[in-house]
Amino acid sequence: MLSLGGGTQSTVLALLANDGCFGRKPDVAIFADTGWEPPAVYKNVEWLESELSFNVVSVSANRSLKEDVEAGVNARGRPWLSIPAFLSDPDGTPAGMNWRQCTTDYKINPIRSEVRTLLGIPARSPVSMATSVEMWLGITTDEAERMRVSPDQWIVNCYPLIDLSMSREDCINWFNENYPERELPRSACIGCPYRSAEGWLQLRKSDRDSFDDAVRIDESLRASGHNATAMFRNRVFLHSRRVPLREAVEADAAEYDMNREGHWGNECAGICGV
Known about the structure:
Strands 1-2-3 form a 3-stranded parallel sheet, with helices on both faces. A 3-stranded antiparallel sheet has the order 5-4-8. A two-stranded parallel sheet has the order 6-7. It has 10 helices and 8 strands. It has helices at 8-18, 39-51, 65-71, 102-119, 160-163, 168-178, 197-206, 208-220, 227-232, 245-258, and strands at 2-4, 28-32, 55-59, 86-88, 94-97, 133-136, 155-158, 235-237. It is α/β, with parallel strands linked by helices. Strand 2 (28-32), helix 2 (39-51) and strand 3 form a beta-alpha-beta unit. Helix content is 39%, strand content 11%. It has one domain: Rossmann fold.
Protein backbone atom coordinates (compact mmCIF):
# COMPACT_ATOMS: atom_id res chain seq x y z
CA MET A 1 0.00 0.00 0.00
CA LEU A 2 1.04 3.60 -0.60
CA SER A 3 0.65 6.16 2.18
CA LEU A 4 -0.79 9.17 0.40
CA GLY A 5 -0.40 12.52 2.14
CA GLY A 6 -1.64 14.44 -0.89
CA GLY A 7 1.41 16.72 -1.10
CA THR A 8 4.49 16.90 -3.28
CA GLN A 9 6.40 13.69 -2.63
CA SER A 10 3.53 11.27 -2.13
CA THR A 11 1.78 12.59 -5.26
CA VAL A 12 4.88 12.07 -7.38
CA LEU A 13 5.44 8.65 -5.82
CA ALA A 14 1.89 7.62 -6.73
CA LEU A 15 2.24 8.87 -10.30
CA LEU A 16 5.60 7.17 -10.80
CA ALA A 17 4.15 3.95 -9.45
CA ASN A 18 1.22 4.32 -11.82
CA ASP A 19 3.67 4.67 -14.72
CA GLY A 20 5.31 1.38 -13.74
CA CYS A 21 8.62 2.92 -12.64
CA PHE A 22 9.02 0.37 -9.83
CA GLY A 23 8.13 -2.75 -11.78
CA ARG A 24 4.87 -3.17 -9.88
CA LYS A 25 2.05 -1.04 -8.53
CA PRO A 26 0.58 -0.72 -5.05
CA ASP A 27 -2.69 -2.51 -4.41
CA VAL A 28 -4.07 0.66 -2.87
CA ALA A 29 -3.14 4.20 -1.87
CA ILE A 30 -4.55 5.32 1.48
CA PHE A 31 -5.20 8.98 2.29
CA ALA A 32 -5.74 9.78 5.98
CA ASP A 33 -8.07 12.76 6.23
CA THR A 34 -7.59 14.65 9.51
CA GLY A 35 -10.50 16.96 8.78
CA TRP A 36 -8.11 19.92 8.74
CA GLU A 37 -6.40 19.58 5.36
CA PRO A 38 -6.05 22.55 2.96
CA PRO A 39 -8.67 22.61 0.16
CA ALA A 40 -5.85 22.18 -2.39
CA VAL A 41 -4.91 18.83 -0.84
CA TYR A 42 -8.48 17.53 -1.10
CA LYS A 43 -8.64 18.65 -4.73
CA ASN A 44 -5.32 16.96 -5.46
CA VAL A 45 -6.41 13.67 -3.91
CA GLU A 46 -9.64 13.84 -5.89
CA TRP A 47 -7.62 14.35 -9.08
CA LEU A 48 -5.36 11.41 -8.22
CA GLU A 49 -8.41 9.19 -7.78
CA SER A 50 -9.24 9.78 -11.44
CA GLU A 51 -5.62 9.59 -12.61
CA LEU A 52 -4.36 6.40 -10.94
CA SER A 53 -5.06 2.85 -12.10
CA PHE A 54 -5.06 1.56 -8.50
CA ASN A 55 -7.59 2.44 -5.84
CA VAL A 56 -7.32 5.51 -3.62
CA VAL A 57 -9.07 5.08 -0.30
CA SER A 58 -9.76 7.94 2.10
CA VAL A 59 -9.92 7.09 5.81
CA SER A 60 -10.28 9.06 9.01
CA ALA A 61 -10.49 8.74 12.77
CA ASN A 62 -14.22 9.49 12.40
CA ARG A 63 -13.45 12.82 14.02
CA SER A 64 -12.19 16.20 12.87
CA LEU A 65 -8.81 17.31 14.22
CA LYS A 66 -9.88 20.91 13.70
CA GLU A 67 -13.04 20.47 15.76
CA ASP A 68 -11.19 18.54 18.46
CA VAL A 69 -8.48 21.20 18.78
CA GLU A 70 -11.11 23.90 19.00
CA ALA A 71 -12.99 21.93 21.65
CA GLY A 72 -9.81 21.00 23.52
CA VAL A 73 -10.32 17.24 23.31
CA ASN A 74 -8.33 14.34 21.86
CA ALA A 75 -9.40 11.63 19.42
CA ARG A 76 -11.22 9.85 22.24
CA GLY A 77 -13.16 12.97 23.23
CA ARG A 78 -11.23 13.48 26.45
CA PRO A 79 -9.84 16.86 27.54
CA TRP A 80 -6.46 17.27 25.87
CA LEU A 81 -4.63 19.06 23.09
CA SER A 82 -3.24 16.65 20.49
CA ILE A 83 -1.16 19.08 18.41
CA PRO A 84 2.44 20.12 19.20
CA ALA A 85 1.50 23.68 20.09
CA PHE A 86 4.06 26.18 21.37
CA LEU A 87 3.86 27.09 25.05
CA SER A 88 5.02 30.14 26.95
CA ASP A 89 4.93 31.22 30.59
CA PRO A 90 2.63 34.12 31.49
CA ASP A 91 5.63 36.47 31.26
CA GLY A 92 6.31 35.35 27.68
CA THR A 93 9.23 33.03 28.44
CA PRO A 94 9.23 30.02 26.07
CA ALA A 95 8.06 26.87 27.86
CA GLY A 96 8.63 24.19 25.22
CA MET A 97 6.02 22.44 23.10
CA ASN A 98 3.10 20.18 23.76
CA TRP A 99 3.47 16.47 23.10
CA ARG A 100 2.42 15.58 19.53
CA GLN A 101 -0.31 12.96 19.39
CA CYS A 102 -2.23 14.09 16.30
CA THR A 103 -0.16 12.10 13.80
CA THR A 104 -0.76 8.81 15.56
CA ASP A 105 -4.45 9.37 16.27
CA TYR A 106 -5.59 11.04 13.06
CA LYS A 107 -3.22 9.57 10.46
CA ILE A 108 -1.26 6.46 11.44
CA ASN A 109 -3.99 4.63 13.35
CA PRO A 110 -6.69 5.13 10.66
CA ILE A 111 -4.27 3.90 7.97
CA ARG A 112 -3.28 0.87 10.04
CA SER A 113 -6.94 0.14 10.72
CA GLU A 114 -7.76 0.28 7.01
CA VAL A 115 -4.90 -2.09 6.18
CA ARG A 116 -6.27 -4.55 8.73
CA THR A 117 -9.71 -4.22 7.16
CA LEU A 118 -8.32 -4.90 3.68
CA LEU A 119 -6.55 -7.98 5.04
CA GLY A 120 -9.69 -9.15 6.85
CA ILE A 121 -8.00 -8.95 10.27
CA PRO A 122 -10.26 -7.65 13.07
CA ALA A 123 -9.04 -4.84 15.30
CA ARG A 124 -6.81 -5.96 18.18
CA SER A 125 -6.57 -9.47 16.73
CA PRO A 126 -3.05 -10.88 16.33
CA VAL A 127 -1.52 -10.72 12.86
CA SER A 128 -0.02 -13.91 11.48
CA MET A 129 3.76 -13.96 11.11
CA ALA A 130 3.15 -15.00 7.50
CA THR A 131 1.46 -11.65 6.79
CA SER A 132 3.60 -8.91 5.28
CA VAL A 133 2.52 -5.51 3.99
CA GLU A 134 4.80 -3.09 2.20
CA MET A 135 4.05 0.52 3.08
CA TRP A 136 5.43 2.88 0.43
CA LEU A 137 6.32 6.28 1.88
CA GLY A 138 7.12 9.41 -0.11
CA ILE A 139 10.35 10.41 1.61
CA THR A 140 13.13 11.92 -0.50
CA THR A 141 16.92 12.11 -0.19
CA ASP A 142 16.89 15.55 1.42
CA GLU A 143 14.87 14.20 4.35
CA ALA A 144 16.33 10.72 4.67
CA GLU A 145 16.53 11.18 8.44
CA ARG A 146 12.77 10.61 8.50
CA MET A 147 13.18 7.00 7.42
CA ARG A 148 11.96 4.62 10.13
CA VAL A 149 11.43 0.94 10.74
CA SER A 150 7.74 0.23 11.26
CA PRO A 151 6.78 -0.60 14.86
CA ASP A 152 4.51 -3.32 13.44
CA GLN A 153 6.46 -6.41 12.45
CA TRP A 154 3.94 -7.20 9.71
CA ILE A 155 4.43 -3.80 8.02
CA VAL A 156 7.65 -3.11 6.09
CA ASN A 157 8.31 0.56 5.39
CA CYS A 158 9.69 1.13 1.88
CA TYR A 159 11.11 4.30 0.35
CA PRO A 160 10.96 4.09 -3.46
CA LEU A 161 11.95 7.74 -4.00
CA ILE A 162 15.10 7.16 -1.95
CA ASP A 163 15.84 4.14 -4.15
CA LEU A 164 15.61 6.45 -7.17
CA SER A 165 17.87 9.02 -5.44
CA MET A 166 15.17 11.64 -5.87
CA SER A 167 15.10 14.84 -3.83
CA ARG A 168 12.06 17.01 -3.23
CA GLU A 169 13.31 19.35 -5.96
CA ASP A 170 13.60 16.38 -8.33
CA CYS A 171 9.97 15.55 -7.59
CA ILE A 172 8.86 19.09 -8.35
CA ASN A 173 10.85 19.18 -11.60
CA TRP A 174 9.46 15.82 -12.70
CA PHE A 175 5.90 16.90 -11.96
CA ASN A 176 6.29 20.26 -13.72
CA GLU A 177 7.66 18.50 -16.79
CA ASN A 178 4.91 15.90 -16.93
CA TYR A 179 1.95 17.93 -15.61
CA PRO A 180 2.74 21.56 -16.51
CA GLU A 181 -0.90 22.59 -16.23
CA ARG A 182 -1.15 21.60 -12.56
CA GLU A 183 0.34 22.76 -9.26
CA LEU A 184 1.42 20.57 -6.38
CA PRO A 185 -0.12 21.48 -3.01
CA ARG A 186 1.68 21.69 0.30
CA SER A 187 0.67 18.85 2.61
CA ALA A 188 0.31 20.23 6.12
CA CYS A 189 -2.77 20.54 8.28
CA ILE A 190 -4.05 24.11 8.17
CA GLY A 191 -3.22 24.77 11.81
CA CYS A 192 -0.09 22.62 12.08
CA PRO A 193 2.42 24.27 14.46
CA TYR A 194 5.23 22.71 12.41
CA ARG A 195 4.28 24.94 9.48
CA SER A 196 7.28 27.09 8.50
CA ALA A 197 7.29 30.88 8.45
CA GLU A 198 7.03 30.88 4.67
CA GLY A 199 4.33 28.25 4.92
CA TRP A 200 2.18 30.59 7.02
CA LEU A 201 2.83 33.44 4.59
CA GLN A 202 1.91 31.23 1.65
CA LEU A 203 -1.28 30.08 3.37
CA ARG A 204 -2.30 33.68 4.04
CA LYS A 205 -1.61 34.59 0.41
CA SER A 206 -3.16 31.62 -1.36
CA ASP A 207 -6.01 30.57 0.97
CA ARG A 208 -7.16 33.47 3.11
CA ASP A 209 -10.24 31.65 4.38
CA SER A 210 -8.12 28.81 5.78
CA PHE A 211 -5.66 31.28 7.27
CA ASP A 212 -8.43 33.27 8.94
CA ASP A 213 -9.82 30.01 10.33
CA ALA A 214 -6.40 29.12 11.76
CA VAL A 215 -6.22 32.58 13.35
CA ARG A 216 -9.62 32.00 14.95
CA ILE A 217 -8.61 28.64 16.37
CA ASP A 218 -5.26 30.02 17.55
CA GLU A 219 -7.15 32.67 19.52
CA SER A 220 -9.51 30.06 20.95
CA LEU A 221 -6.56 28.21 22.51
CA ARG A 222 -6.02 31.12 24.89
CA ALA A 223 -9.68 31.79 25.59
CA SER A 224 -11.00 31.50 29.12
CA GLY A 225 -12.47 28.06 29.68
CA HIS A 226 -10.55 26.28 26.91
CA ASN A 227 -9.03 23.01 28.12
CA ALA A 228 -5.57 24.05 26.87
CA THR A 229 -5.53 27.01 29.26
CA ALA A 230 -6.60 24.85 32.19
CA MET A 231 -4.24 21.96 31.42
CA PHE A 232 -0.97 23.72 30.74
CA ARG A 233 -1.20 26.84 32.90
CA ASN A 234 0.73 28.38 30.04
CA ARG A 235 -0.24 30.40 27.02
CA VAL A 236 -0.69 28.25 23.91
CA PHE A 237 0.13 29.27 20.34
CA LEU A 238 0.18 27.77 16.84
CA HIS A 239 3.20 29.87 15.78
CA SER A 240 6.78 29.45 17.04
CA ARG A 241 7.01 33.18 17.83
CA ARG A 242 4.57 32.50 20.67
CA VAL A 243 2.40 35.48 19.86
CA PRO A 244 -1.08 35.52 18.27
CA LEU A 245 -0.96 34.01 14.80
CA ARG A 246 -2.00 37.10 12.85
CA GLU A 247 0.61 39.18 14.64
CA ALA A 248 3.27 36.48 14.14
CA VAL A 249 2.68 36.28 10.40
CA GLU A 250 2.83 40.07 10.07
CA ALA A 251 6.26 39.89 11.70
CA ASP A 252 7.23 37.04 9.35
CA ALA A 253 6.19 39.16 6.37
CA ALA A 254 8.32 42.09 7.48
CA GLU A 255 11.28 39.80 8.12
CA TYR A 256 10.80 38.06 4.77
CA ASP A 257 10.90 41.40 2.95
CA MET A 258 14.26 42.13 4.57
CA ASN A 259 15.67 38.68 3.77
CA ARG A 260 14.42 37.84 0.29
CA GLU A 261 17.68 36.06 -0.50
CA GLY A 262 17.47 33.89 2.61
CA HIS A 263 16.47 30.24 2.69
CA TRP A 264 12.91 29.63 3.80
CA GLY A 265 11.27 26.21 4.04
CA ASN A 266 8.60 25.51 1.44
CA GLU A 267 6.49 23.09 3.43
CA CYS A 268 5.95 21.65 6.86
CA ALA A 269 8.88 19.81 8.40
CA GLY A 270 7.30 16.50 7.49
CA ILE A 271 7.37 15.26 11.07
CA CYS A 272 4.17 13.31 10.45
CA GLY A 273 6.11 10.91 8.27
CA VAL A 274 3.16 9.79 6.15
